[in-house]
């Protein structure tokens, strides 16, 4: 487990009123299981009442704070644990296997997720003259750090604003900026800086990943993608796999299969229609690759998966 303890830790939930307040607020705003959007576009809340199966998911650049329960994530054969009072910073889109391991109807898994805008991070770094480690590479490992008191206070201020929607346009951006600042000056500041980095090989791969995320339904030209980030094709292949743990073609395939699964789960689309939508011409190839990733054929797995939110 990669766990970095900060110097001003808050204690476990039983002895931490602020953590209890965060858990209670998330529970109040999530009446049922799943991922819940909020009036703040970048903020979403997660509630899961029972342990889940180990399921492939795609982590986007964001900050995650667990308020109750626990979860494990597996990346490239390595397993990471995170639970209450840990926060996770994801600096690049990553395909992982996620599993909620501690959750009950009485004490569900509760998590806060805040999407991270690289431009906002870059502006914050410039405004604070905090240029330390701005050239840090984007590595594929997952790191958790302990939530300190200033970060918890900032998160609660953002959550409290959901009770006063009239204040959101003015105060929500300020609260989000403070949260980013607390992370930037904390144990995982280097990972936040990596999101805003504009040069270096790893940051170029991050830009290529963002391009793939936006255009994964289009035919993929490795040469063009490498050229767009000013890298040779061979160097691009090597660096892409170092950052994401898979080749560009594998990464695109994962994105397409996840989108097909989403279409079947959320939209009720038939398996073959979803396959065609994401670019598969061969039903047998789609079924074979879908089963390899998700562990069951699409027709059978889709019905079961509707009850398992991707968290």
Automatic annotation (TrEMBL):
Keywords: Transcription, Transcription regulation. The keyword Transit peptide does not apply. PROSITE patterns: HTH_ARAC_FAMILY_2. Pfam families: AraC_N, HTH_18. The keyword Lipoprotein does not apply. Residues 206-299 form the HTH araC/xylS-type domain. PANTHER family: ARAC-FAMILY TRANSCRIPTIONAL REGULATOR, TRANSCRIPTIONAL REGULATORY PROTEIN. This is AraC family transcriptional regulator. It comes from Lysobacter arenosi.
């Amino acid at each position: 487990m990669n766990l970095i303890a900060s110097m001003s830790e808050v204690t476990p939930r039983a002895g931490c009123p602020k953590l209890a307040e965060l858990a209670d607020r998330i529970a109040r705003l999530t009446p049922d299981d799943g991922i819940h959007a909020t009036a703040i576009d970048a903020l979403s809340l997660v509630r899961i009442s029972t342990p889940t199966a180990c399921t492939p998911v795609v982590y986007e650049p964001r900050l995650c704070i667990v308020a109750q329960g626990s979860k494990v994530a597996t990346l490239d054969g390595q397993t990471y644990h995170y639970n209450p009072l840990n926060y996770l910073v994801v600096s690049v889109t990553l395909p992982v296997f996620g599993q909620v391991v501690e959750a009950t109807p009485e004490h569900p898994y509760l998590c806060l997720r805040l999407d991270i805008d690289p431009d906002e991070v870059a502006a914050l770094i410039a405004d604070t003259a905090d240029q330390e480690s701005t050239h840090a590479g984007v590595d594929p490992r997952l790191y958790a750090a302990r939530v300190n008191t200033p970060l918890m206070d900032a998160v609660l201020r953002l959550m409290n604003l959901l009770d006063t929607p009239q204040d959101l346009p003015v105060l929500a951006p300020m609260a989000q900026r403070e949260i980013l600042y607390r992370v930037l000056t904390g144990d995982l500041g280097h990972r936040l800086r990596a999101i805003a980095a504009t040069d270096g090989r790893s940051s170029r791969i991050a830009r290529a990943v963002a391009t793939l995320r936006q255009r994964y339904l289009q035919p993929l030209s490795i040469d063009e993608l490498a050229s767009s980030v000013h890298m040779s094709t061979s160097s691009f292949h090597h660096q892409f796999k170092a950052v994401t743990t898979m080749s560009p073609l594998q990464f695109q395939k994962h994105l397409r299969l996840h989108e097909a699964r989403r279409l079947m789960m959320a939209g009720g689309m038939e398996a073959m229609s979803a396959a065609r939508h994401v670019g598969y011409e061969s039903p047998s190839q789609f079924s074979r690759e879908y089963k390899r990733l998700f562990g069951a054929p699409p027709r059978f797995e889709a019905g079961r998966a509707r009850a398992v939110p991707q968290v």
